[in-house]
Amino acid sequence: MDTTLQTIAAKVSEGRRLEPEEGLALLRSADVWTIGRLADHARRRRHGQVAYYNINRHINYSNICALSCHFCSFYRKKEQPGAYEYSAGQIAELARNAAAAGATEIHIVGGLHPWLGFSYYTDMLSAIRAAAPKLHIKAFTAVEIVHLARIDRRPNDIRGVLADLQAAGLGSLPGGGAEVFDDRVHDQAFKGKIRSDKWIEVHRAAHELGLFSNATILYGHIESLEDRIEHLCLLRDAQDEAISAGHPGRFQTVIPLPFVPDGSALGHLHGPTGLDDLKMLAVCRLMLDNFEHIKAFWIMQTLELSQLALSFGVDDVDGTVGWYDITKVGGADTNQQVDVATLRRVIREAGFIPIERDTLYRRVVRDGADWDVVRYDPATSQAMAVTA
Ligand code: V47
Predict the structure, then answer these.
(1) Less crowded by CB within 10 Å, the N or C end of the chain?
(2) Ligand 1 nearest atom to the CA of residue 109, by list position
(3) In the prediction, which pLDDT does 388 show?
(4) CA distance 193 to 210
């Protein structure tokens, strides 16, 4: 074992919190097996042999974006070939089809569209609600929420914007748009996007309103290892705050996103390697001791590596996905999906028990085409009632 990891190993086995410099030592170490073993220990303490997956559908409502982030190959300007925008009716139709195919969640994000008004977004949510009432709508990154507040001429009323979206059907916030919480990286790679304080403010407001949310970190481009650890510590602090303030919502999961250079202005970079991906997932598990879940997004990590990632701290694999337009690894097109049988098989082959979850990590039980969620009595761990 890398001897610099010995103190860290002792702290992990005692369940003690790691300091930033210990996170950095883990990222700097080449002893990937020890890092994996420690993360697996922390993962099994919470989740045993269970690994979650969900049946979902991603929808990108438009790729037209006012920003031109250097890492992004998704955005188009309105006049550019390939620019698109869906109507509320088209999105509702996609949602209806997804629900009919068994999805429990729809994940909706898009570019910062310069001209669509606030009502486009509330109409979209209401139309999905009407078309597929049981579907959980996880939608709009913190960056989009700030954009919506601006276009609705109430830039300081993030809470009001979220409340209006919640009333129209918004169920939770995805973790996107966080990138790396560092001003140097921000100014070089995604100038014009909100900074870390604003991203965290949006999630805080969501948690206060009872919305659960996710977090991401986009790594493997121009950030340093110190920047990665700083980012994780800011997320950990924000979660501590949500818990100690007793907010009805909080962060559920972190999704580390490996940078995919293809087609972006940073296309000359090579992006992270598989070992970096595994270490990053493991370090997220070890540093984020107040996050219940660590998610592998197989679209970016690949299904093969996600399988191994289950032994490096990951307890959740997202998901059946369907359509994905933001990144396309190895020449994939937008039709990126995996069927449930394959997801369950890869989890089982990795030595874990596949459990279908809904967006809020409740266990899903199916009866033919119908589904419900099981709640457990926290005192007895017995299944209590089945209700969506
Ligand atoms: O915000 C953009 C990232 C994110 C690239 O909350 C890129 O459950 C890598 O946030 N290489 C969107 N990443 C994806 C996202 C997400 C995915 C799955 C589940 C959840 C969840 C959230 O993708 C963007 C941005 O950070 N991104 N371009 C790229 N070239």
Answers:
(1) N
(2) 12
(3) 47
(4) 25
